[in-house]
Design brief:
about 350 residues, mainly beta, four-stranded antiparallel sheet, about 45% strand
Length: about 350
């Protein structure tokens, strides 16, 4: 498609500089609950139209009492169910650890998978999985992922043919991304090596040039079958990488022009020529990578490179609105979004681009 046609199509789709969106609904997922702190939500739009979200909640992030909680909004309902515990971090009678970063994904056969991590800290994480056959109402006993596998680290997998491509990352020896791939036919896992990264100025150590540190990739699908990821960094901008072989190998990680304040993001492909990104559009100053996680915006792009603001979901100076998750409703191409509200609640937003 020519550049002129793309520009005209962009205006017709309403994603140019005067882009407008309609927030169809914005609400707290649950009323104040027994746990005072929550974070890292995930959301799935099920085949029957139900919405399911999960998040970790407890005394504070990293506390041994932090569990994975699930709320459901059945199709046609105006209300979310009360939080129900789907998994905890009990190791044995004398040892309990925190749960982290749930990720929901409904498999083609309808089974709902819930990935999560258990550990005393990030370096201690192990990957786990629990399953639901009744659209998230009840959950199976947790099962460990193979040794060395963490599953999707924050953002949802992509099903490419018969392979579930899980975007993952590690933080113990610098921030590095990799991909863990599950074969639905053989039920076997394998993972890619850590993806090599370009060099860039470090914001933690002024004047030092280091490989780009990237974690928490989210996958979008470009025209022609190319996969692209957008990643959180400590370099003041989002990073990206591309795969032309369905996720088996990836280009070097490089910085984009999209601002990033070292906060989690999520992205999704809406249709073959439109992608959506939910993020904190804050450009970190050199040496300062902990800027407040506000505002929280939705942006759209036709190519995964240039992003235009669509709508602001939240903005309050000094507050935190963070760690979004986003999926597309296949029935009408609207966006279902959840995110952390001041570490106290989870918010759900329904956005029509």
């Amino acid at each position: 498609m020519s550049k002129i046609k793309l520009i005209l199509l962009g205006f017709l789709l309403g994603i140019g500089g005067c882009a407008e969106a309609q927030i169809l609904c914005k609400e707290f997922v649950y009323e104040p609950h027994a746990f005072p702190s929550c974070h890292a939500s995930t959301i799935a739009c099920l085949q029957n139209g139900d919405l399911v979200t999960a998040f970790f909640g407890g005394s504070y992030e990293g506390s041994p009492d932090v569990c994975i909680w699930v709320c459901r909004k059945p199709a046609g309902s105006d209300h979310w169910t009360e939080p129900a515990m789907a998994a905890d971090g009990v190791i044995n009678d004398t040892l309990r650890k925190a749960c982290y970063n749930p990720v929901l994904y409904q498999m083609p056969d309808g089974e709902l998978w819930l990935f999560f991590k258990i550990g005393s800290c990030v370096a201690d994480w192990s990957g786990w999985l629990t399953r639901s056959r009744d659209n998230g109402a009840t959950w199976s006993p947790r099962e460990p992922l193979p040794d060395g596998f963490l599953g999707p680290i924050k953002n949802k997998p992509e099903l490419i043919g018969n392979r579930l491509v899980c975007p993952s990352s590690t933080e113990s020896d610098g921030w590095k991304i990799h991909f863990e791939i599950y074969d639905l036919d053989t039920h076997r896992w394998h993972k890619t090596p850590d993806i090599e990264a370009e060099l860039a100025p470090s914001l933690q150590e002024l004047g030092r040039i280091t490989p780009i540190g990237a974690i928490q990739p989210s996958i979008i699908r470009l025209a022609g079958g190319t996969l692209q990821v957008l990643c959180r960094t400590q370099n003041g901008k989002l990073a990206t990488s591309y795969s032309h072989d369905n996720g088996e190998s990836w280009s070097r990680v490089e910085l984009t022009n999209v601002p990033n304040n070292c906060s989690g993001t999520d992205a999704v492909t809406v249709n073959p020529i439109l992608h959506a990104l939910v993020y904190n559009p804050v450009q970190s100053e050199l040496g300062d990578y902990r800027d407040p996680r506000t505002p929280l915006d939705v942006a759209t792009s036709m190519d995964g490179i240039y992003w235009n603001k669509l709508v602001t979901l939240e903005h309050e100076p000094g507050s935190e609105f963070s760690y979004p998750a986003v999926v597309v409703d296949p029935r009408d191409s609207t966006l279902h979004i959840t995110y952390t509200w001041k570490r106290q609640r989870i918010v759900y937003a329904h956005v029509k681009p």
